[in-house]
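Memo to structure team: turn this sequence into structure tokens by end of day. - J.P.
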Amino acid sequence: MRNALRFILTGILLLIGLAAAPAVGAQTGGTINGVVMLAPTNTPLADVQVTLEWYEGTTLKQTLQTQTDAGGGFSFTGLAVGGENVYTVSALYKDVAYAADMITLTADAPQKTVRLDVYETTDDDSGIVIERAHLIISPLNEGVQVGQMFILSNTGDKAFIGKPLQEGGRPVTFRMYLPKGADQLTFDAGALGERFISVPDGVADTMPIPPGQSSAQVVLSYTLPPQGSPWSMDYTLYYPVKNLNVLVSMGWIVEGAPLEFAGTMGGEMPFLNYAARDLPANTTLHLTFKSGAPAGGMGSTTATAAPAGSSQRTLLGIAIGLGALLLIGLVTYPMWIPGRQGRA
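Reply from structure team:
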């Protein structure tokens, strides 16, 4: 975020223990310096609020704030060095928060310098593109589990802050279609009624989308009623889509133009992968699911995913795992801080 899937990697970082325990023998004396620049003009910004958060493990230990000087600079001093301390630094500009990578300070490198790029804002969504969409289908006896992951790009030079779908409504930045009968809706980050809101035929995100390729992401899952074979589902994509992957559990196949079978993805529990590219906005897929195997064989395994289970949350993990494998090292993501946009 500008490293792949920053929200995800932040969680991974905490889970694997890089920020998992209180520091022992940590020393003070660390410094984080930085500058806030208005992109893409590279103009230093004065009087911008900058916030530093110090985490010890998963616990927020302290929050510090300062204002940028005439040259856009800021500095936090006297910070803990060594141990497992982790810092985040963010700048609030026009009610949108922008953050740098998570920062660690060591005895060998007690000082770090960061640059925070901020942007003007717009309510024009013409630059929003779905860089990659994953639709993961797992039919089970108790119901059909569906997981979705969207990687979004903003081809403009301003942060898209959304616009209301109706007069008096909250501005929305990204709409997602929900098939009829969708239930047990779960998001990887945020909740319905908070970051996400209900809209006609689905749900919508309210998180701003910054400029850049693969600059935002949304992961969600839900369940559909049990289905026999064959069964059909319509699905609408409201934005242009560069790459679409429809992944279905082994034992099922998918039919529906313009999808083409593209092999398998998965490790202990693989999925069949059906792919399409360069779809225009407001494309509606008419998908038919049948029990069986693809003609011509399975093809080769292209990625390894976490094993699927019977819980809905598993599909969130699968979406994250599959997406991360395709994206880590290839794309980058700006870090956004939920709840700091300051917009109703």
